[in-house]
Request: fold
Amino acid sequence: MPFNATERWVRIALVLGILIFLNILLSFVRLELDFTEDKRYSLTRGSLNTLEQTREAIYVRVLLDGDFPSGFKRLQHSVIDLLRQFRSINPQIEFSVEDPNSGSPEEINEMREKLSKDGLLPINLKVQTGTGKSEQLIFPYAVFNLGERKIAVNLVEHDPALDQEANISQSISQLEYKFVNALSKLQQKEKKNILFTASSGELPEENTLAVQQQLRPFYHVVRADLDSLYSIKESVDLVIVARPLQPFSERNKFILDQYLMQGGKILWMVDVLQIGIDSFTYRQDFIPEPLDLNLSDLFFQYGIRIDPTLVLDMECARIAQVIGKVGDKPQIELFPWNYFPLAAPYSNHPIVNNIDRILLDFPAKIDTVKSAGSVTKTPLIVSSPYSRFQLAPARVGFDMLRYAPDASKFDKPHLIMGVLLEGQFKSLYANRPEQSMLEAMEKLGLSFRTESQKAAMIIVSDGDLIRNYYDASTDKFSPVGYSKFEKTTYNGNRAFFLNAVEYLVSEENILEARGKEFKIRMLDQVKISREKSFWQLLNTALPLVLLLLGGQVHRYLRKKKYTT
Reply:
């Protein structure tokens, strides 16, 4: 008997020793298995590359601690889990979770004032309780710090069309992209170069101040007249052509063509008709004339055609009309204006995935055609299922506002108004280069290319996509996507533009993380409220009942065994 007891203890010690050894061994091994359908716990390749290339210590302050409802608790846990995952890949990343609303009233006010000075504005969180609603100010931000540099990341996505739970799920799906993007920009040693063209009556600088304000912290932004250039250098990472109003010369088209052949990236925002809401200042109707930019052959060579059309959409912004007078004051009412489509994201491409609606101003229809090179075409901005187009010349006027639109006539769904082209392009001038152009390139030590390296461009058939209003008297400008009639801002315009820029210039492909979309599995709140007590009682009492039954069965079997 003593031998058996000793042997038993030896076996127990041996098993414990093996378990401790395995535990120590596995602590040095990172093993994660993601069995979720949407791969929500797996990082994209671009994110992993950014994390692995991080060489300096980065500290993250998460301002999301406190007593929150379940949705924000889910967001809080997701933020912490993701940062822990980052830290397990790269120990240089450290973080803390803070509650800006903790401390004495003086300390709280001091903290709020400090955060506001840094541009971190609170949101008013409304919480539904059993007795009504309560409100609290929260700061849903994560601040990434690298030495003296810092970038604040807004953790909350807000789509007015979605409820709070859906917005929380959308916010969680974008955390990886936002965090990795912040890491990438913090460690950026050299800024990328962006060139706005200014040779064909493009948007003046004051009408692009809003986007330049967004770009300048992370990019070198310059404006250049193509007439003063002989070529666009390879060091230019992106060329932006925003609402030209005058024809491009063959010389300038050649410069843009050869820039693309070097593997360049171009973002085009162009109109094909001379029309704007200002066209109706002194008239009730208007027949827009074609706007000849001398770009049709260039676009056709690359694989698209912008038809002289106007897209009308039942999902649209509204404009103001005077319908009468109250006393001596005009009575104004807002009416849907089908020429201002509100385009929702059409694909799951990372440029447009999970962004808000995009406000377009008299856009045209884009057709894709067979291109000379090997080019992939991806529609990015399309009309709703209830849309149609109007061929020019055609009269455009306010008379249409008198009648409710006939939905049966809006029978041309998903008209393309923005498209991404990427791949190998064939030069428009492959078979017809002008001798003067070739001589100029030879003097500069440049070679004429007939086929591009891997290149990309985005074409949007609305020149006003990124235009901001500017008030010279106050030197103030509106946000991008601002509707002056509705006095609201459509954030999709800014998001689309910044995502397009990021996609075209980024080498790490971190924008891939924006393509993540978590499926929302919502709980039935009414059923939860009605059956809450039952399930609480069941979960509390059932284990006790099962334990008692198990004890009785065990007692009965033992009694029966030894009685026999």
